């Protein structure tokens, strides 16, 4: 829950900064400055990357608005986050770059210690990363290669509704899946055959009879019996197909596990399966 809240706040902050950036790109500097200040008031301790971007836009916007004191203050705050930052002369007007560089020179005595501190922090991070890699390397050398691998398989819920045993095959019930698939194929073929036979029989004009030839025209009693049998087969096969399909869907849901974790021994097969629910 805490992680979700952090992500939502970060997304909201990025959206606020994007609105300020959109105004900045269109040259609406007053709106941009207001949007940046609103963002900073809601995020007093933003991530360093976002802080640099916010104060960069604020400084340039205030300079264009004619308030050099506010522009200087924004650039000084920017340099406190990144003392080596430089404006891109291809994207920023020369007079703004000159103003920023002057602010940077004026505060050079204070920026030196900041650079040294950042260098020390980066060096400490590098040493910590090396120590971590060395620790893991020594542990792996002591214990040898991993003795097992966890294989994670995410299963698709929609396959539970697919006919022909798809849900059973996904659940690892191959024999049941084959039986359901074979039954549904046979019933579908029987239904289609009965439908085709009935239609052909009804459209065959050579089998028609007149009132003088048969008691119940236009079909003879034998043909009417065949049509009745075809109807029975057609409806019965359809009913059985949907009954078997419903059973397959119900069975697939009963045995459905969204995620399967299997322990695999290197050089061998699975040592066991661990089923976990995931939504």
Structure, described:
With 279 residues, this protein is mainly α. 67% of the residues lie in helices and 7% in strands. α1 runs parallel beside α3 (48-64), α3 runs antiparallel to α4 (68-81) and α8 (174-203) packs antiparallel against α9 (221-254).
Topology:
Layout: H1 2-25, H2 29-42, H3 48-64, H4 68-81, H5 94-106, H6 108-143, E1 149-154, H7 166-170, H8 174-203, H9 221-254, E2 259-264, E3 270-276
Helix pairs in contact: 1-2, 1-3, 2-3, 3-4, 4-5, 8-9
Write a brief caption for the model.
The chain is mainly alpha-helical.
CA-to-CA gap between the ends?
Answer: 15 Å
Biggest sheet overview: 3 strands, antiparallel
Mean of all residue-level pLDDT scores: 84
Percent of residues in beta strands:
5-15%
Rg, nearest Å: 38 Å
Q: What's the overall geometry?
A: elongated
What is the count of structural domains?
2
Tally of helical segments: 9
Structural class: mainly alpha
Query: Which series of helices and strands comes N to C?
Result: HHHHHHEHHHEE
Oligomer: single chain
């Amino acid at each position: 829950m805490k992680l979700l809240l952090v992500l939502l706040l970060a997304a909201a902050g990025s959206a606020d900064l994007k609105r300020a950036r959109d105004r900045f790109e269109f040259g609406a500097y007053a709106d941009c400055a207001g949007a940046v200040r609103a963002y900073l008031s809601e995020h007093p301790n933003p991530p360093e990357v976002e802080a640099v971007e916010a104060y960069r836009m604020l400084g340039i916007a205030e300079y264009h608005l004619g308030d050099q004191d506010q522009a200087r203050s924004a650039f000084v705050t920017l340099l406190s986050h990144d003392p080596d930052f430089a404006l891109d002369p291809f994207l920023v007007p020369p007079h703004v770059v000159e103003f920023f560089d002057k602010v940077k020179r004026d505060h050079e005595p204070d920026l030196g210690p900041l650079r040294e501190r950042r260098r020390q922090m980066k060096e400490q991070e590098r040493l910590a990363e090396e120590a971590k890699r060395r620790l893991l390397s020594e542990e792996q050398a002591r214990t040898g290669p991993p003795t097992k691998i966890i294989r994670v398989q995410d299963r698709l819920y929609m396959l539970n509704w697919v006919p022909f045993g798809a849900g059973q095959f996904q659940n690892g019930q191959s024999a049941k899946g084959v039986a359901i698939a074979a039954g549904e194929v046979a019933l579908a073929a029987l239904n289609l055959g009965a439908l085709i036979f009935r239609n052909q029989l009804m459209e065959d004009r050579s089998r028609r009879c007149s009132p003088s030839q048969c008691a119940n025209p236009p079909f003879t009693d034998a043909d009417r019996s065949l049509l009745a049998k075809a109807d029975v087969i057609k409806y019965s096969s359809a009913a059985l197909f949907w009954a078997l399909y419903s059973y397959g869907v119900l069975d697939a849901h009963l045995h459905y596990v969204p995620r399967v974790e299997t322990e695999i021994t290197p050089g061998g097969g699975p040592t066991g399966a661990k089923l976990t629910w995931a939504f």
